[in-house]
Specification:
Shape: globular
Order of helices and strands: HHHHEHHHEHHHEHHHEHEHHHHHH
Strand content: under 5%
Strand order of the largest sheet: 1-3-2-4-5
Largest sheet: 5 strands, mixed
Number of helices: 20
Structural class: mainly alpha
Distance between the termini: 40 Å
């Protein structure tokens, strides 16, 4: 069909944005001092730091190749995953798939205790260093996550057409696989938390503490997160016996190191990029972990790309992006949001940096915004920055940087080093 040929045979686009910068990735990373997991690492002493760094490097080796993702999709969509025969591509979320497919499949076989990341199962324990780190939300359709990754590999602008191909069945998926093979993309590796984190060392045995207030929005969301979207039945918890590590043991925890892992891959893997796969409802921009990752990649000047469902969805949700506030974002676990907020030294500055990461000249939506629209967006960000209750010196620095973005000029390396803040644009 025209749609199939349109997505499969369009001219390939380069993966890495051709961005010139006066600073190397390493220099930017050294200036990423806003807190986050890097701050947590620095607060550790002695052996704790070594354990932390070893875990970062272990996580970095859990990339997933496109052929494995496509194989998994075919198995799941074909109803061949024992624990999830009711999978519905138009309703089942990534959360549903993690709980009922990824966790059971990645549990150690037989009587062995524990489990592994599914990425490690697929690679048979060999390191696979991803060229792309994916930010996504577990509340989105799993179909859209897979479609977004594949569309990114093809260099497409939207992932709706790839999603349509995935829905058609084995014949069209085979054509998709052939197109990936002919372009040399089947071995392309992506880092995706759902596959790359060992869920058995974290969430598999429960759902976190129930929020206070049975009818509160937080409690209702918590309850929804522990039920299958299709059947509304409670997920079965895993009794693998693997030791769990959360914020109380930060050096061994796997879900508090995403920014450190991103920086490690960016400094060690040539051509590394950050890919943001946005769900159709744009809920990703209300998730604390997701926007923390976006700001991290912006401050470290990582090349980044955004995948959205369609032009229609972009038009519907674009305006709400200018009002994002990290304090109003959510996390699956309340303690995760608290940890993220506590690690941010200046929330208003963080919100300003987030706006630049989205709308700036190197931002996620830069290719959709012309000069006049960008000037209007930056003007709103300037107003917001000026209303911050920041120290006078910080406010002056922010205004200068925002003004330079507006006029497509950038501070010199000497100007950058004077402030100690990184406002990538």
């Amino acid at each position: 069909t025209a749609m199939l040929s349109g997505i499969l045979w369009q001219p390939a686009e380069p993966h890495v944005d051709e961005i010139s910068t006066s600073k190397t990735h390493g220099e930017n990373m050294r200036r990423y001092d806003r807190g986050g997991s890097i701050g947590t690492q620095l607060s550790l002493t002695g052996n704790g730091r070594a354990v932390w760094q070893n875990k970062v490097e272990e996580l970095a080796g859990r990339g997933v190749r496109l052929h494995a993702l496509l194989d998994f999709w075919e198995t799941l969509a074909g109803g061949n995953v024992e624990a999830m025969p009711h999978f519905d591509p138009l309703r089942s979320t990534t959360n549903d798939v993690v709980r009922q497919a990824i966790i059971p499949i990645s549990r150690n076989e037989g009587t062995a205790i524990g489990g592994r990341a599914l990425a490690a199962v697929w690679s048979k324990g060999e390191n696979v260093f991803a060229t792309h780190m994916v930010t996504h939300t577990w509340s989105s359709l799993f179909l859209h996550l897979i479609a977004g990754i594949i569309a990114d590999a093809f260099g497409a602008q939207y992932y709706m057409e790839v999603a349509d191909i995935l829905l058609r069945g084995p014949e069209d998926i085979s054509k998709l696989r052939t197109a990936l093979r002919e372009r040399g993309l089947l071995e392309e590796a992506y880092w995706v938390c759902a596959f790359s984190v060992n869920q058995h060392a974290g969430i598999c045995a429960g759902f976190g503490q129930a929020p206070v207030g049975h009818e509160s929005p937080e409690h209702l969301q918590w309850d929804a997160n522990r039920r299958d979207t299709v059947t509304q039945e409670l997920f079965r918890v895993c009794d693998c016996g693997e030791s769990k590590f959360f914020n109380d043991q930060p050096e061994r925890c796997e879900i508090n190191k995403f920014d450190a892992m991103m920086q490690h891959l960016c400094s060690s893997v040539q051509g590394f990029t950050h890919v943001v796969v946005v769900d159709a409802a744009f809920a990703l921009f209300s998730r604390a972990w997701c926007i923390a990752e976006i700001v991290c990649s912006s401050e470290c000047d990582m090349p980044k790309r955004i995948m959205v469902h369609s032009a229609e969805m972009l038009d519907q949700h674009y305006d709400i992006l200018s009002t994002i506030d990290v304090r109003e974002c959510r996390a699956a676990r309340v303690e995760d949001k608290d940890m993220i907020l506590e690690s941010i030294r200046d929330v208003e500055m963080f919100n300003t940096q987030l706006q630049l990461a989205i709308f700036g000249t190197k931002g996620l939506f830069s290719r959709w915004i012309d000069g006049q629209d960008r000037a209007a967006m930056i003007g709103r960000i300037v107003v917001r920055a000026r209303s911050c209750r920041c120290k006078a010196s910080v406010s002056s620095s922010v205004s200068t940087r925002l003004s330079s973005v507006r006029h497509n000029t950038y501070p010199t390396s000497e100007e950058s080093s004077d402030t100690g803040d990184s406002v990538a644009s």
